[in-house]
Please model this.
Amino acid sequence: MSEIETRFLAPPAATGIRLDLAGAVTRRAGAIVPLLAVIVAWEAASRSGIVTPFLLPPISAVLGRVWEDAISGELALNLGETLFRSLAGFAIAGAGGVALGILMARRRWVRWFFDPIVSVGFPMPKIAFLPIFMLWLGLYDVSKISMAVFNAIFPVITATIAASEGVERQLLWSARSLGASERQLLREIILPAALPQILTGLQVALPISMIVMIVTEMMMGGQGLGGAMIAASRFADSPGVFAGIVEIAVAGLCLVKGIAVLRRHLLAWHQEAQEPTTV
Amino acid sequence: MTSETLRMTSEAVNDIANRIPAVVPRYLPLLLLAVGWEALTRTGLVPTSALPPLDTVARAWYELASSGDLWTNGVASMTRGAAGLGLAIAGGSLIGILMAWYKPVRAAVNPIVQFFYPMPKSALIPVMVLWLGFGDASKIVLIFVGCLLPVTLSAFNGARGTDEVLIWSARSLGASRARVLWEIVLPSALPEMLSGIRTALALSFVLLVSSELIVARQGFGYMIGWLGDGGAYDAMFAVVLTVALLGFAADRLYLMLVRRILAWRE
Model:
């Protein structure tokens, strides 16, 4: 379907608020049924004795454990550590990646130097460098956050380069002929026009920094959700392991949904906002 | 110097700097990095305990390769990766296309996919150890589970985007539903599926190395951890670089393959 067709076929945004609300409620209800089925099947499997409670503790016990962690303050502590480090890594990777990407798109010698590094570095499994980071930077926040930055920066750089190169030439020429300075050009034309694609790059980078943070915490130990999980598994404490999975899954879901909401806010002016996006 | 001459000089410098890239080969910067590495360690600016010189790393690599260690561990890792990724590609494409083709399947599976897709898959490592132990099975299942959802979603989105007019035309010309699925939906879903599989390929390397680093008795990740613990940093760097280059090579090979598969679209 062409873009114009979709826009005509889409219901007008202003009139449909009440209808849309009803639709959203039924859609949510429809989405909850399969998830409930998974939960019921999980509980039934472990209660009926098909699998031992060690291999799969009942979800009620797991949620009870999450609740205990929340009461004792353990959850807040570990969750806070993990979120702080992943978000710090994500923020540094985001700022650095956008800056480097724009420089690479605008300055040819920067492009020349970094292009082979980025194109070789992007597909590499950079998690293999983890022991090297431990050797250089130790076992604490600095090495964990650096590892997240190192892993998450590549998709931001490539998305920013592609985005700033995709900016319409006519826009740049017109702004320049109207006397815009290089800085104005960047702030008023390039960044807004490149924003959708840059945000896509950031949406890729956020889960990466989370995945990497969990692994580094598992490797290096200490506080954080990953460290807590690996400690639980060393003591064969299976409710603890599953509680960790539930906590990490919910945290990941919230972060990903959060950045999607942010995207919708930032791009409210963009035609993309009119078209629903998946995930 | 007047500001005018200053401006002209800076323009001239810029001009020359802009012309450098056209003359020198593309991968020279990587060579510069390698030379910089060697220089840093040789001059003693960086202690060799933190960064072993590149030539000792190369020698350590040669020793690991000739003793057969690199080969046996490498084969163990690559078999795990290939098995997990292969299963994920088969399962994910099947589920994704079924989701696009049958509404009830979509209604049942889509919420589950949407809920679990953002989950950091590395959280599953301890559970896999709990369930399947330290061997191959825990890594293969981890990679399968981790890579399943990216493949499923890309197959679903690809198949969902099939031009309806093509389906209607084929149906009105008497094609069976199975034939429409095979000859129209699958080919038009292919480009998106292949890009989802590329994501899964990169993810499979990440999950493989991290699970082997954390718990394993064999494989590249295990080697990296064990060499690092023993203080054999030159050998550790050798294995890290080997894994990194294998990941890069796998991606490039895959892109070449994709270009061949999609050649009919041109």
Q: What stands out?
A: Residues 182-220 of chain A form the longest helix (39 residues). Residues 86-272 of chain A form a domain with the MetI-like fold fold (CATH 1.10.3720.10).
